[in-house]
UniProtKB/TrEMBL annotation:
Signal peptide segment: none
Top-level taxon of the source organism: Bacteria
Residue runs in coiled coils: none
KW DNA repair (keyword) present: no
Biological classification of the source: Bacteria, Bacillati, Actinomycetota, Actinomycetes, Jatrophihabitantales
Protein name, entry field: Glutathione peroxidase
Entry-linked InterPro entries: Glutathione_peroxidase (IPR000889), Thioredoxin-like_sf (IPR036249)
Source organism (scientific name): Jatrophihabitans lederbergiae
CDD domains: GSH_Peroxidase
A Pfam family this chain is assigned to: GSHPx
Annotated SUPFAM superfamilies: Thioredoxin-like (SSF52833)
Family membership: Belongs to the glutathione peroxidase family.
Length: 163
């Protein structure tokens, strides 16, 4: 199965709609949370969306409540928080599990990808990042503490923009 075929319901709650990393587009997949010490990373994620969005790139925010209950809100509360607090314009999905027996199939595809230090396996915390190339290949994994606008992230995005 291609990673482009692994769909997640959008935060909007439209049960007939799905979103997934799209072919011919670079996608930064990030498990997000509203009540985490790393939540201010939303600002950097939004700036990446603004900087590269017109060039075939998107952030895909995936709320998860598995880390100290730091994403407890409903879909509506999450959407309101992201919109009013950080002006998020990139797509957000419904909450999913990223670890454990109910791990979403997208994360089942992602967790075996090593980061720069060679770590593979379970998601460590909120705001772990994966870059998916337009071809569907997972080309980079970044530690949760790595800021979205870190040179390594920006360079990886620039190297994987389509065209």
């Amino acid at each position: 199965m291609s990673i482009h075929e692994v769909a997640i319901a959008p935060l909007s709650g439209d049960s007939d709609a799905t979103i997934a990393p799209r072919p011919n587009m670079a996608t930064l997949v990030v498990n997000v949370a509203s009540k985490c010490g790393l939540t201010p990373q939303y600002e950097g994620l939004e700036r990446l969306q603004e900087q590269f969005g017109s060039r075939g790139f998107t952030v895909l925010g995936i709320p998860c409540n598995q880390f100290a209950g730091q994403e407890p809100g409903t879909d509506a509360e999450i959407a309101e928080f992201c919109s009013t607090t950080y002006g998020v314009s990139f797509p957000l999905t419904q909450k999913v599990d990223v670890n454990g027996p109910q791990r979403h199939p997208l994360y089942a595809e992602l967790v075996d990808v090593p980061d720069a230090e060679g770590y593979t396996g379970d998601i460590r915390w909120n705001f772990e990042k994966f870059l998916i190339a337009p071809s569907g290949e997972v080309v980079a994994r970044f530690d949760p503490r790595t800021e979205p606008e870190d040179e390594r992230v920006v360079s990886a995005i620039e190297s994987n923009l389509p065209g």
